[in-house]
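Dear Dr. H.,

I hope your travels went smoothly. While you were away I took the liberty of generating a structure for the chain from your last submission, since the lab meeting agenda had it listed for discussion. I wanted you to have the full record in hand beforehand rather than looking at slides cold. The sequence, exactly as received, is reproduced here:
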Amino acid sequence: MPTVHNWQIGRDMSYPHEERHPERQFAFVFNLNRCIGCQTCTMSCKSTWTFSKGQELMWWNNVESKPFGGYPQHWDAKILALLEEANPGGQVWSTAGAGSDNGSDDAPYGRFDGMTVFEAADKKPRPDGPQQALGYLPTDDEWRHPNIHEDTATGSHFKKEGQYGGSTELPEHKVWFFHLARICNHCTYPACLASCPRNAIYKRPEDGIVLIDQSRCRGYRKCVEGCPYKKAMYRPETRTSEKCIGCFPRIEGKDKSASPTGAPAETRCMAACVGKIRMQGLVGIEEDGTWTPDPKNPLYFMIRERKIALPLYPQFGTEPNGFYIPPRWVPRNYLVQRFGPGVEDAIEQYSCPDRELLAVLQLFRGGQQIIFRYEIEQGEKVAEVEVTMPDGTTKTQEIFNDTVLGFNKFDEEFIRITVEEPTFERPAEMHVNSI
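The corresponding predicted structure, in token form, is as follows:
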């Protein structure tokens, strides 16, 4: 296999195709501290893209209640088990020097010394030849429940001694669950693309969105088998595979209802989010795969500069372009397995955000267009709050009523939000009911 560089695992790795990168990359950040599991994102995607025969069990966007939920069921546990079987005891990180202040651009979370899904593929020989990416085909039953075990917490489910009715205080709950919203990560090194024997899957050079050419697909389901996140799905009606398309007409600025001037707009699932957990955008990519430095792009700021948003299972090796701000109340070892060793640093920053980070966090769901640049207009100090940190110490957080501005591709301002939410008082006189 050719060798490519994966900055998320801090090293070079094997991949079936030569290294190649788009001009810009579709990427997103989900703040899991805010997700309420309302499934509004799920239904907006479902009603837009998957409403025809053969698509009944397709949920390109889904929200899982962790730790017991999953779509398809057990997708993450099964992939982790396959990797552990291929490399017993070797799926570990070396984290010396990692962190928001110390981690380099090449290895911001440290170095993953285990095997990726590509490197472990030849450890599981098959009669039809080795896989390009280690994986499995879910059963039909595993596709039937988009959010099984919804809102089921640890402790309350098993009623373990000392947990049921136990502490629900920060930094870690004894009884806990959280909602994990998922779409296709539009990976830099997609396992679906690597697994396709028909070369029917490709990344768009202009934005890195991963698509399936329906005219070439023959429904072999190698993409379904190879994708560790199980975001390629088989449609029996047409005998082809389908997946999230990143709402590329909106990315191209063709949705005039979202952007009258033709600026790129966020996807349907992003725009519909009532919990304000989502932000999506485009980041510049250099020829060698590094991100173009752009500290005023909110995604670059959160992902590469502050490292508060982390990739989902970076150890799989696909270099996903979906990033998550981890939930504060969940046991750290569970989060480290899911998001890598940058969890402690990310939660510490989120627990007591500084002035700039607090302002940027207000931009989530401020408008439907993609934010290419932000600015902050400083305001007066409005509060001081004592914050208990994850290690038990306290910090005094100074809160300023700054105004954060968001600009689109054409450098047009379309967001203006203050940190302190304004209040409005209804007039005393009565009004006739409009209904």
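Two observations you may find useful: The CA atoms of residues 105 and 304 lie 8 Å apart. Residues 3-355 form a domain with the Alpha-Beta Plaits fold (CATH 3.30.70.20).

With kind regards,
E. W.
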